[in-house]
Design brief:
Strand content: 25-35%
Largest sheet: 8 strands, antiparallel, barrel
Structural class: alpha+beta
Oligomer: single chain
Helix content: 25-40%
Radius of gyration: 16 Å
Shape: globular
Length: 209
């Protein structure tokens, strides 16, 4: 997020999965840097869950929309799933950023916060972003530093929302008592969508093109 990611990801592939040993994920991805460069990736971020042992979230920023289908079909993607011991088909989101909201007004550097990620279906993405924009002061009061909204390529109602929040206590309060506009949090975990992901950044890799 804002404290660890210097470049906005215009296109993103996010995968949420469980592995026996989360500590293996980051080193394996680092060893695949050249393969990721070959499909147009520019940043990779790895988060591990603080509430659900073995759960990992990986986001890959790519330079253009075209390589995404190629990546999803490529051995690059499946090789590391196999290598880290993924047993179930992971939840994968592919889309582009709609808007990024910075609700952290502090000019001082801050330590990486807690990340809350949700994949959900919403009625109208444009209305949602307008509501978030109007609620930024409340988000800031709740400890939310940044909110990114991504829309899926294949479904105009499906979104990935990544939020960075100050700490574990603030994250717990936000999940238990979300702002009225944060309706997407109740949509996470419904149907095929994975439950809310709550975790911390364990590694970020920049890949030069």
């Amino acid at each position: 997020m804002s404290s660890a990611n210097p470049q906005t990801h215009s296109m993103v592939i996010a995968s949420d999965y469980r592995v026996p040993n989360p500590d293996r994920v980051w080193p394996l991805i680092q060893r695949r840097k050249s393969a990721l460069a070959g499909i147009g990736a520019h940043h990779v971020l790895v988060y591990t869950s603080t509430h659900d042992h073995g759960r990992v979230l990986v986001t890959i920023g790519v330079r253009s929309r075209e390589p995404i289908v190629e990546l999803l079909r490529s051995r690059v993607f499946f090789d590391w799933f196999d290598a880290v011991g993924v047993e179930d088909i992971p939840a994968v989101f592919a889309g582009e950023i709609v808007e990024r909201f910075n609700s952290n007004t502090s000019s001082q550097p801050t330590a990486p916060g807690v990340v809350i990620a949700a994949i959900a279906s919403v009625d109208n993405v444009s209305i949602l972003t307008a509501e978030i924009r109007g609620a930024l002061s409340r988000f800031q009061t709740a400890g939310v530093r940044e909110t990114r909204v991504f829309k899926a390529f294949d479904d105009g109602h499906e979104v990935l929302i990544l939020q960075e929040i100050d700490d574990e206590n603030a994250a717990r309060r936000w999940i238990e008592h979300p702002d009225v506009v944060a309706r997407w949090m109740t949509g996470a975990g419904v149907g095929a969508y994975p439950p809310l992901f709550v975790g911390k950044l364990v590694g970020m890799m920049r890949i030069d093109g």
